[in-house]
Amino acid sequence: MSSGSDDREDPANDAALPGSGFFLLLGRVELRFAQLCVVLMTALVLTSALARTFGEPMNWTVDLATFTFAWAVFVGADVAWRRDRMVSIDVLVDRLPDGPRAWVRLLSYVIIAVFLVVLAYTGTRLADDASDRSFDGVPWLSYTWVTIAVPIGALLMLYTTVHKIRGEIRARRDGGEEPA
């Protein structure tokens, strides 16, 4: 539950991340997508502020900034989860011996997986409920495209969580060492 090594902070260092193949490819795509969303959101907010300053408000920029913010948050959450960069309070867990610590971590992953399944389900219902709603400044863009970020982000994090659970189980089976 700790934040891991400093190598995990460098997105270019895929060797520091557990997994291979599709898992790593998906992680790279998620990272670039989240970065793009943050850049677009920043540009849109700046454009809106400048336009307002010059007396020509562009309301659609705020709507699209909201859209990119939602996607950056939910995809970026999985980027952080993959790299063990989520906030955690592990003062007590760190004091446990290796065996119980591993079981607590595994239990935590299972609880997180259950939560993510519920989040994906309720997020899908929310996206469906928002299907008839659109942005004021961008009437052709359904609000569903914002709310669908919730279940998609939850499913991405669920995929990562299952990967972490498999790593924990594999580590216990192969000798009890910490997973990579």
TrEMBL record:
Membrane-related topology note: Multi-pass membrane protein
Top-level lineage group: Bacteria
Subcellular localization(s) per the UniProt record: Cell inner membrane
Residue span, Tripartite ATP-independent periplasmic transporters DctQ component domain: 41-169
Entry-linked InterPro entries: DctQ, TRAP_DctQ
UniProt similarity note: Belongs to the TRAP transporter small permease family.
Principal place of residence: membrane
Name of the protein this chain belongs to: TRAP transporter small permease
Organism: Georgenia halophila
Pfam families from the UniProt entry: DctQ
Keywords: Cell inner membrane, Cell membrane, Membrane, Transmembrane, Transmembrane helix, Transport
Membrane spanning stretches: 33-54, 60-81, 102-122, 142-162
Keyword Magnesium: no
Keyword NAD (UniProt): no
